[in-house]
Amino acid sequence: MSKTQEMYYSDEHEWVLMETDNIALIGITKFASDNLGDIVFVELPDSGTTVNQFEQFGEIESVKAVSELYSPISGTIKEINDSVVQNPEILSESPFEKGWLLKVELKDTSELDNLMNLEAYESFLESGKN
Amino acid sequence: MTKNNKTPLYQKHIASKARIVDFGGWDMPVQYESILKEVEYVRTDVGMFDVSHMGRVNITGKDSENFLNRVLSFNTKNLKPGRIKYGVICNKNGGIIDDCVTLRKNETDFMIIPNASNTNLVLDWFNKVLVSDKYQHSITTSKWTDISIDNSTTTTAMIAIQGPQAENKLSNIINKDLSKIKYFGSLQTTFDNQDILICRTGYTGEDGFELICSAEFAPVFWDALKKSQVSECGLGSRDILRLEAGLLLMGNDMNSNTNPFEVGLGKFIDLSRINYIASDALKIIQSNPTNNKLVGFVMEDKGIPRHGYQIKYNDQIIGQVTSGGVSPTLDKIIGLGYIAKEFSTLETKISIEIRNKNLSAKITKIPFYIRRKNV
Predict the structure, then answer these.
(1) Percent of residues in chain B assigned helix, strand, coil, to nearest 5
(2) What integer is the mean pLDDT of A46-75?
(3) Interface of B with A in 329-358 (CB under 8 A)
(4) Closest Cα of chain A to B151: distance in Å?
(5) What share of chain A in percent tops pLDDT 90?
(6) Which of B60, B136, B205, B305 has the fewest CB atoms within 10 Å distance of its CB?
(7) Which residues does chain A have within 8 Å of residue B356's beta carbon, measured at their own beta carbons?
(8) Interface TM-score (ipTM) > 0.95
(9) Which residue does chain A place closest to B35, by CA atoms?
(10) Which pLDDT value is given to residue B175?
(11) What's the whole-model pTM score?
């Protein structure tokens, strides 16, 4: 069972899942991975570096195109998902679970207020503004 | 914004939930389920592509052989009825207008298959040559009294059936022995009382056929293929397949500023014909070659080279990537690009600049992938 109900979403189609009070996983949504098509390359920053909310932190490439990854929150990277870097197809198969990208220690949990819940994200998708 | 063209199979693609993209002014399926899977279908079994966006230009009449000899890169007199030949169409300066195959149907009738976005360019060029020849008195040209050029792109459809099982599947469906059609040969036949033209050609590096039928009949034929488990494949997989096979893409790997010699197409040029319109220009280019050479390379570091990225030797820029991507068949990342000739020796270590990083690659031979040949 994926925890999509508990996740926070950005309009760049990234998700945040809180694991503890200040540690979260970050990934891309199924909408994003479906739209990219076959994902063949993922470039992530090193563990220990910082990410800033709504700023670029990596690249993702499908067969046809290069896309940027934007962090939905600010913090320090505690861990990267190396299996996704080694086998990018995991992102197509399981974007909400096995395909997580970063484990981040949040700088400021109030930044979560800038994100959407599942219901809001779904209506955002339906509105076609994405 | 002008509306894009749609092929007679467009509704079939929509029904199969294909992802549609603009390609040379046409709404075409880029993928159905997965580009990588579609590559695998073609390499291991059989897949089908709607390639109706490519041009179908008929050149008919007693003058057509001589006229085509004026504009095509090879000698049409050597092309036997039923046979097909690959060549290029060059402008007076020797630049490439298009690369295409030509089928000789009989003594007087030919068909040329230009690239989708170049069909009108080719038609314009042919008509321009026809008109200017008529008004210029020259020993090498004629008045072109018996020739007609007709574009049947929108009244017909074209389907490519590609893969090791292509002959088996197609011959079962149409109940004809296709083993007699040689590579780059053709057969005009009927199926379900409909005329179909079958060419043993393709753009994937696999055995297979390209089939031309009427626009009305195409959806029926598509359904028959689908029913026989021929997998639907889109242009995304076709691009990977052609790159693996080292086949060039017009507009990507070459354009009107490139000459046939620097892209390795010299072997398709016959300059012994005095009436060939690009002879003079191409002879000059051949004796004063440019320093560019199209080469293949394999990435050693992980990163995907894309059109326009710079190719370097140490820190010196020596060329540019024209095509690149993953090769699922070879499990490598491959690319094509132009570099200065002195760096083109096989195994030379180069680097590709990808997002401000120089990633290592090495020059390798093209094609990257060669099928085991039965035909």
Answers:
(1) 25, 35, 40
(2) 95
(3) 355
(4) 31
(5) 92
(6) B136
(7) none
(8) no
(9) A38
(10) 95
(11) 0.92
Judge whether B222 and B159 are in contact, CB under 8 Å: yes
How far apart, in whole angstroms, are the C-alpha atoms of residue B171 and residue B176? 5
pLDDT score of A1 more than 70: no
B36 and A CB contact within 8 Å: yes
Residue A70: phi, psi to the nearest 5? -115, 135
Q: Which CATH number among 2.40.50.100, 3.40.50.80, 2.102.10.10, 2.60.120.10 corresponds to the domain A4-108?
A: 2.40.50.100
The beta strands (E) that lie in B208-364 are given as 208-214, 231-232, 292-299, 310-313, 316-327, 332-340, 349-354, 357-364
Domain boundaries, chain B: 5-54+154-244, 57-151, 291-364
Give, for B131, the enclosing helix (H) or strand (E).
helix B119-135
> How buried is residue B210: exposed, middle or buried, by Cβ count under 10 Å (0-12/13-18/19+)?
buried
Burial-class residue B304 by CB neighbours within 10 Å (0-12, 13-18, 19+): buried
User: Taking CB atoms and an 8 Å limit, are B303 and A41 in contact across chains?
Assistant: yes
A37, closest residue in chain B (CA to CA): B34
Inter-chain contacts counted by CB atoms under 8 A, chains A and B: 32
The confidence score (pLDDT) of residue B140 equals 56
Task: Give the pLDDT confidence of B76-124 residue by residue, as tens digits.
Answer: 999 999 999 999 999 999 999 999 999 999 999 999 999 999 999 999 9
How many helices (DSSP H) and strands (DSSP E) are in chain A?
4, 9
Residue numbers in chain B where pLDDT is lower than 50: none
CB A111, CB A74: distance < 8 Å: yes
- pLDDT confidence of A2, banded at 50, 70, 90? low
Which residue carries 């050609």 as its tokens?
B201
Among A40, A43, A66, select the one facing B326 at the smallest CB separation. A40
**A58 to chain B: which residues are within 8 Å by CB?**
none
Token pair 């792109």: residue:
B153
- Flag if B326 and A63 touch (Cβ within 8 Å): yes
Q: What does the pLDDT look like over B160-199, one tens digit per residue?
A: 999 999 999 999 999 999 999 999 999 999 999 999 999 9
Superfamily name with CATH number, domain B291-364:
Aminomethyltransferase beta-barrel domains (2.40.30.110)
Q: Which chain A residues are within 8 Å of B19, Cβ to Cβ?
A: 37
Pull the structure tokens for residue A39. Answer: 């994902």
